[in-house]
Write a structure and sequence with these properties.
20 strands; 327 residues; five-stranded mixed β-sheet
Length: 327
C-alpha cells in the first residue's frame, strides 16, 4: 500500500472561521514513486476531506444529495470551489441558480452526458442514476454559497479548503486518502491518514486539566488564588493576542497565560475587575507573545489570599491579522 501523511496542518493546529485552511500531504508508493517528484500524477489520486464538528463532537449532518455525490464519481472531476477537469460546483450554482427549467436541464445533462458546455472535456453519462437521485444532487449544488462550506472534498497533494464562517464549529477532522495505480494484475491499493484540528476559541470547561476550578455548566467558576487550567500541545506560533470572556461578582484578580507550566514564561497577563455580577460578562483583550514550538498553555488565576475570583467562559487565541470575519 502507499504511504501518506500530512506535512501541514499538524494534529492539534488551529483553524479560523471564514479563512482558507491550507493543506499539504506527501505520498510515497513503491511502484508510482513519490509526490515530491511527480506531484501531478500522484495528486490526481489523492483526496482530502474536512469534517466540521460542534462542541458535542458530532459532525454536521450530511445533505442527502451530497451523500449521493460522494458515492458517485462526481468529485473525480469537480471540486466545490476550484476547477479540476470540470467546473467548480459553486460556478455551476452561480450560472444556473434561479433560472427557469435549469434544474431539469442539469439533471438531463448528468444522466445523458454533455460536451462543450464548460469547455472541451465532455461529461460522461450517468445512466445508472435515477432522476430523483440526480435531482437531490443538483439541489445540493444549487444551494452552495461562497464561504459556507460544502463538500470540503478536494483533489491534490496541496490546496486549501474553505472553513465555514459559523463559529459553532469547535473541532475539525482533516482526512487524506491516496489510491495507487496498481501493478499488473494486482489491483490498486488505498491508504489514508487524518489530523484533528481545533478552533481558536478554547472553551474553559473543555480544558485538558483543571486544578481547583469547577465546571459550572458552560463556564468554569469557584476560582481561587493559584487555581489553574491547562490546554495541551497548542501551536502558539501565530498568536498575537488573547481575548477572554469573564465575569466577576467577587474580588476579581489577574489571569496569567504561561507556556508549559506554572513556572513557564508569562506570555500574557490581564487584570479582571469586578463586573457587577456573576452573570455580567465582559470581553477583555491582551497582547500575547508567540511561541515558536508547540507548547502546553497554562492559565493561572491570581489574587493572593482571595477566593471566588471570577468565572471564565472561553479564551480565544487570535492571529496578528485578526478581523471580525476571521474570529
Amino acid at each position: 500500500t502507499p504511504t501518506i501523511r500530512f506535512l501541514a496542518p499538524q494534529d492539534g493546529d488551529f483553524f479560523t472561521p471564514g479563512q482558507a485552511l491550507k493543506y499539504k500531504v506527501t505520498v510515497n508508493d513503491r511502484e508510482d514513486g513519490s509526490s515530491e517528484g511527480d506531484e501531478d500524477w500522484l495528486g490526481a489520486r489523492t483526496m482530502v476531506n474536512a469534517t466540521w464538528m460542534g462542541s458535542d463532537g458530532k459532525s454536521v449532518e450530511a445533505d442527502p444529495g451530497l451523500s449521493l455525490m460522494k458515492q458517485s464519481d462526481c468529485f473525480n472531476c469537480h471540486a466545490t470551489e476550484t476547477r479540476i477537469v470540470g467546473p467548480a460546483f459553486l460556478d455551476v450554482a452561480n450560472k444556473y441558480r434561479g433560472k427557469e427549467g435549469s434544474i431539469e436541464d442539469t439533471i438531463t445533462r448528468v444522466i445523458k452526458g454533455s460536451s462543450r458546455v464548460w469547455g472541451e472535456a465532455p461529461m460522461l453519462p450517468h445512466e445508472s442514476l435515477h432522476p430523483d437521485q440526480v435531482r437531490m444532487m443538483v439541489r445540493w449544488i444549487y444551494a452552495l454559497e461562497p464561504g459556507k462550506g460544502g463538500a470540503n472534498l478536494m483533489k491534490g497533494i496541496s490546496g486549501s479548503i474553505s472553513v465555514p464562517t459559523d463559529s459553532k464549529f469547535k473541532t475539525a477532522l482533516l482526512e487524506a486518502s491516496h489510491t495507487d495505480g496498481g501493478n499488473g494484475q494486482a489491483g490498486p491499493l488505498s491508504s489514508s491518514t487524518a489530523v484533528r484540528l481545533r478552533s481558536r476559541q478554547l472553551e474553559a470547561e473543555s480544558a485538558d486539566e483543571k486544578v481547583g476550578p469547577q465546571t459550572l455548566g458552560p463556564v468554569v467558576g469557584a476560582i481561587d488564588h493559584g487555581h489553574t487550567l491547562l490546554f495541551r500541545s497548542l501551536n502558539l506560533g501565530d498568536v498575537a493576542q488573547a481575548r477572554l470572556r469573564v465575569s466577576s461578582g467577587g474580588s476579581g484578580g489577574t489571569i496569567e497565560l504561561r507556556a508549559g507550566s506554572a513556572e513557564g514564561p508569562v506570555l500574557a497577563e490581564i487584570r479582571v475587575e469586578p463586573t457587577g455580577g456573576w452573570d455580567k460578562y465582559v470581553e477583555l483583550i491582551t497582547p500575547m507573545s508567540a511561541v515558536p514550538e508547540r507548547k502546553d498553555l497554562l492559565i493561572r488565576f491570581s489574587n493572593p489570599g482571595k477566593g471566588g475570583l471570577m468565572n471564565l467562559d472561553w479564551i480565544r487565541l487570535e492571529p496578528a491579522a485578526a478581523t471580525p470575519a476571521s474570529l
